[in-house]
């Protein structure tokens, strides 16, 4: 691996393009070769995972709206598929619809380091462009692996959250790189596309603050759509704001640490295997990743606490990020509001712990139902739960060794007689270092569970078989990565949506 130091340069420096971060990211993408076995297998897992959560979200309003907007742009030849329909649309609109479907339930993969990410958000735009441009499954895999490599490197090296910049700024750059690898574009073309995408997808973190709206699901889809459009412009010879990261009026200087910015981004050397996807992990539960271990901890503690009416207080000792993003340290009263949106509740660790402690389980729909959130006993328990930052958990969150990194916490439950019940969990059960790490059968079972009564068992088998043979799929076979669903039910739901411009 090579450490690349990134800082602000005045225009007078005329920073050579080969010394710019965007160029170095593009070079990683355009030199990505064939994947090794472990990397290939994990990419297949994530294709299965994405399809599972996309199908499970088809009858949710934000997904239906994105789908309606996309299908209004049908007729592109050959076009790209949209989950839940038989319509082929222009690839940037397929990226929009499918990206929203994948993200809506907050239920696919994650990578946490200096910043946050959901690297699986790269897959919908890559699949759309692969279909439209006649690429093979092997081409798609090359693009996925390149996108993950760039995405993980940026998340390790550059923190956006401390400056309240939404994490999709790193996603856009990664997707542009993945598209460059998929299409085997010249480094110069990818360099321009990365810069355009970063310039157009930088947004504030208000989308994940306070009363969280449906834009949380749309944000990565918007970045994917922007990346497709940026690559298209770059392929036609258009240039970009440059250097987008290092310029004196650029991303680092005005969005991040300012003129004195100094970041290190570690990237693979030429010829070095691209294995960053193996550092990422998926979710067993439909909630913010930093709540995954806490849900498992609540299920374990349930047997030790006795009647929950006896609970006087619960304090969750956890990392800085967890406390300030989904804990009481966010200072968002909405995180304790029983009328809050689903998007807000899945970013409320006190709510999640209360429900998991009561139910001993977590469900992507039932656990967020309005009547569930408003249950008096739940509300009373919920409001007795707070989080605190523990420096040791913060240190473990940032441990340089992925095998020692921890995203959980310690729960201290104080009962009405003063008795304290304590336990802790470092990583979720499904984490690679957890009690029940997800493997291929785990991904397949998640797909079957989430698509039950939506995709027939025979069509479930067909989809899993196609995904497992992704490296061998011809262009025409990429359609098989979209599980067959009952489109009449989807169309009936869509028919009741209000109309927009399209």
Automatic annotation (TrEMBL):
It comes from the Bacteria. Signal peptide: none annotated. Residues 20-260 form the MmgE/PrpD N-terminal domain. SUPFAM superfamilies: 2-methylcitrate dehydratase PrpD. InterPro entries: MmgE/PrpD_sf, MmgE/PrpD_sf_1, MmgE/PrpD_sf_2, MmgE_PrpD, MmgE_PrpD_C, MmgE_PrpD_N. GO terms for molecular function: lyase activity. Residues 285-470 form the MmgE/PrpD C-terminal domain. Belongs to the PrpD family. This is MmgE/PrpD family protein. It comes from Streptomyces qinzhouensis.
């Amino acid at each position: 691996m090579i450490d690349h130091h990134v800082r602000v340069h005045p225009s007078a420096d005329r920073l050579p393009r080969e010394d710019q971060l965007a160029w170095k990211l593009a070079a990683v993408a355009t030199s990505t070769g064939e994947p090794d076995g472990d990397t290939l297998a994990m990419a297949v897992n994530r294709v299965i995972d994405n399809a599972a959560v996309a199908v499970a979200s088809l009858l949710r309003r934000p997904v239906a709206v994105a789908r309606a907007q996309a299908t209004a742009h049908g007729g592109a030849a050959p076009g790209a598929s949209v989950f839940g329909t038989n319509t082929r649309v222009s690839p940037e609109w397929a990226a929009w619809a499918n990206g929203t479907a994948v993200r809506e339930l907050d239920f696919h993969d994650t990578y946490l380091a200096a910043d946050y990410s959901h690297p699986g958000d790269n897959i919908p735009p890559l699949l759309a462009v692969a279909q439209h441009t006649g690429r093979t499954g092997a081409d798609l895999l090359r693009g996925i692996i390149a996108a993950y490599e760039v995405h993980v490197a940026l998340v390790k090296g550059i923190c956006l959250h401390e400056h309240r910049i939404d994490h999709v700024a790193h996603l856009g750059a990664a997707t542009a790189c993945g598209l460059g690898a998929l299409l085997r574009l010249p480094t110069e073309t990818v360099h321009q596309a990365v810069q355009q995408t970063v310039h157009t997808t930088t947004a504030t973190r208000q989308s994940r603050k306070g009363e969280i709206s449906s834009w949380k699901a749309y944000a990565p889809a918007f970045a994917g759509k922007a990346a497709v459009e940026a690559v298209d412009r770059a392929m036609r010879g258009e240039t970009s704001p440059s250097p987008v990261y290092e310029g004196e009026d650029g991303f680092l200087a005005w969005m991040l640490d300012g003129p004195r910015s100094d970041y290190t981004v570690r990237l693979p050397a030429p010829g070095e295997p691209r294995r960053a996807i193996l550092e990422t992990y998926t979710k067993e539960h439909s909630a913010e990743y930093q709540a995954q271990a806490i849900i498992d901890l609540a299920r374990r503690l349930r047997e030790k606490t006795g009647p929950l009416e006896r609970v006087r207080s619960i304090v969750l000792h956890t990392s800085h990020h967890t406390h300030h993003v989904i804990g009481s340290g966010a200072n968002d009263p909405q995180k304790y509001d029983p009328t809050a949106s689903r998007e807000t509740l899945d970013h409320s660790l006190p709510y999640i712990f209360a429900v998991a402690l009561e139910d001993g389980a977590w469900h992507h729909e039932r656990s967020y139902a309005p009547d569930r959130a408003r249950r008096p006993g739940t509300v009373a328990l919920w409001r007795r739960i707070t989080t605190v930052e523990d420096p040791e958990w913060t240190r473990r969150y940032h441990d340089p060794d992925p095998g020692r990194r921890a995203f959980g916490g310690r729960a201290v439950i104080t009962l009405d007689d003063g008795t304290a019940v304590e336990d802790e969990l470092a990583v979720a059960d499904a984490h690679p270092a957890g009690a029940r790490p997800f493997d291929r059968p785990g991904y397949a079972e998640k797909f079957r569970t989430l698509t039950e009564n939506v995709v027939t068992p025979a069509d479930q088998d067909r989809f899993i078989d196609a995904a497992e043979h992704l490296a061998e799929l011809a262009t025409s076979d990429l359609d098989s990565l979209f599980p067959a669903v009952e489109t009449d039910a989807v169309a009936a739901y869509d028919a009741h949506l209000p109309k927009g411009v399209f």
